[in-house]
Design brief:
Layout (H helix, E strand, L loop, with lengths): L1 E2 L3 H9 L7 E5 L3 E3 L4 H5 L9 E3 H5 L5 E5 L2 E5 L4 E4 L4 E3 L3 E3 L3 E3 L17 H20 L11 E5 L3 H17 L13 E5 L11 H13 L2 E4 L4 E5 L2 E4 L2 E4 L2 E4 L3 E3 L2 H4 L10 E2 L5 E2 L2 E6 L4 E2 L1 E2 L2 E2 L4 H19 L15 E4 L5 E4 L6 E4 H15 L6 H13 L15
Parallel strand pairs: 1-2, 1-9, 2-5, 9-21, 11-12, 11-17, 12-13, 19-22
Antiparallel strand pairs: 3-4, 6-7, 7-8, 10-18, 14-15, 15-16, 20-21, 23-24, 25-26, 26-27
The structure holds flavin-adenine dinucleotide.
Length: 413
């Protein structure tokens, strides 16, 4: 049984495709989501269907695999059983936990209603509607300057999600929208990126962080470093003691592990991740593996990061381990991670790239081309990328955005 049909779960099931095993993939959603590009759904560059794919479509034709849409509520490690939200139970011989992360408001869950986040497809579509509606409301005012909170965006957290979202928003208000609004001037939109630490993109080197900071500021993003958020409420946010009126506070900061490991009574770390050994099994539970974001995998000086490459590599390793065990072959050597480095993008023409050893550092257009190539051809598991390629090219050439429909939100009184 594989819990989670995200990047790790999907790759693990695909690795087991030809093995003499029955695979059950359980996910509470019916789709796999390519999270690295959901900020493009929120900023209307891509449509929801272009960054997601029904799990059943990807695995349904795999003869040994059965897909179940349900939430896993508990794991009984004694009975070797997984319990589902619809009261069903699944027996397992091997269990792979691949349930990823969830949003963490750092002990301030009361901020959640006022600061939506970007983690699921629902989040992205809701955020898109919220952003677009704000501009519509501003245009409807006789004097749009009377309500600056409508078009003041406060993004909390300058990791990859905050930075990429800020860049895309800045481009939207400067490039795409000005031609279409008559009363409201989209270029007056304020985008504030608040970061408690002293630099943006802390997973990159200080040199790359400095370049991205300069780029964001050039694009008109107000980046505030060393500025923790003290409060978020219906009126906006208090950032480093300053009250900022905003209808659009967006949480791009903390994450923690989904509680599956805890529910199974396994050893977890401070983030709730399942602690695993070198063979990626939970200590004392040789039949339970954890992979991807939900796994705490030691490496010198800490643990492996929550990135796609870790999910893919751990998934393949565990798939092969299970095959070897079923076929009574010798055990695999301990898992070792091959770090390919990091990529992030800011707007249509700029990205940064850094290899793990820090020898290659790129910032600018070439890095953007590599970013697009990797996301398009490499990381989406076997999905049809034609429509995404056409949408990107079209919006790159015309400076128009792909999917700007508002379908769910009511007008503001
Ligand atoms: C906004 C954003 C941007 C990102 N950008 C990048 C990037 O540019 N580059 C990069 O390398 N990485 C990026 N990442 C990280 C990358 O997406 C993750 O590392 C990767 O998806 C981890 O895969 P996973 O299988 O561990 O978890 P996920 O892909 O998150 O899959 C977890 C699955 O488990 C399911 N699930 C959870 N709980 C339950 C339950 N109780 N019952 C049933 N199903 C459950 C979920 O529905 C989900 O489908 C980004 C992440 C986010 C959120």
């Amino acid at each position: 049984v594989i819990i989670g049909g995200g990047l790790g779960g999907l790759f693990c099931a695909m690795t087991l495709r030809d093995a003499e095993v029955d695979v059950v993939v359980v996910d509470r959603a019916n789709h796999y989501l390519y999270q690295a590009l959901i900020y493009q759904v929120a900023t209307a560059e891509l449509d929801a269907g272009e960054v997601s794919m029904p799990i059943r479509e990807r695995l349904g034709r795999q003869k040994n695999t059965y897909v179940v849409m349900a939430e896993v509520t508990c794991v009984d490690t004694e009975l070797k059983q997984v319990r589902l939200s619809d009261d069903r139970a699944l027996d397992y011989d091997f269990l792979v936990i691949a349930t990823g992360l969830e949003v963490n408001y750092f002990g301030h869950d009361e901020w959640q209603p006022f600061a939506p986040t970007l983690k699921t497809l629902r989040d992205a579509v809701d955020l898109r509607e919220r952003i677009l509606s704000s501009f519509e409301h501003a245009e409807a005012l006789r004097d749009p300057s009377c309500c600056p909170e409508l078009t003041t965006f406060v993004l909390v957290g300058a990791g990859p999600t905050g930075v990429e979202l800020a860049g895309a928003l800045a481009e939207m208000v400067r490039d795409t929208l000005p031609r279409e609004f008559k009363r409201f001037d989209p270029t007056t939109t304020r985008i504030i990126l608040a970061e408690a630490g002293d630099r943006v993109l802390p997973s990159f080197s200080p040199e790359i962080s400095a370049k991205v900071l300069a780029k964001l500021r050039k694009m008109g993003v107000e980046v505030r470093l060393n500025s923790p958020v003290d409060l978020i409420d219906a009126k906006g946010a208090v950032v480093a003691g300053e009250r900022i009126a905003s209808d659009n506070v967006i949480w791009t900061a903390g994450v923690r592990a989904t509680p599956t490991g805890e529910a199974a009574g396994l050893e977890i770390d401070a983030m709730g991740r399942v602690v695993v050994g070198p063979d990626l099994t939970a200590p004392g539970h040789p039949d339970i593996y954890a992979i991807g974001d939900v796994a705490h995998i030691d490496r010198e000086g800490g643990s492996l990061p929550a990135v796609a490459q870790v999910a893919v590599q751990t998934a393949k390793y565990v798939g092969h381990s299970i095959i070897d065990r079923v076929e009574s072959k010798p055990a695999q050597p301990p898992f070792s991670y091959y770090d390919k480095g990091y990529l992030a993008t800011v707007g249509r023409n700029y990205a940064v790239l850094e290899t793990a050893n820090g020898r290659v550092k790129l910032a600018g257009y070439l890095a953007k081309m590599i970013w697009a190539f990797i996301h398009l051809l490499y990381q989406m598991p076997n999905q049809d990328k034609t429509t995404m390629f056409v949408t990107w090219t079209w919006s790159y050439v015309t400076h128009r955005l792909g999917s700007r429909v508002i379908i769910g939100r009511k007008s503001r009184p």
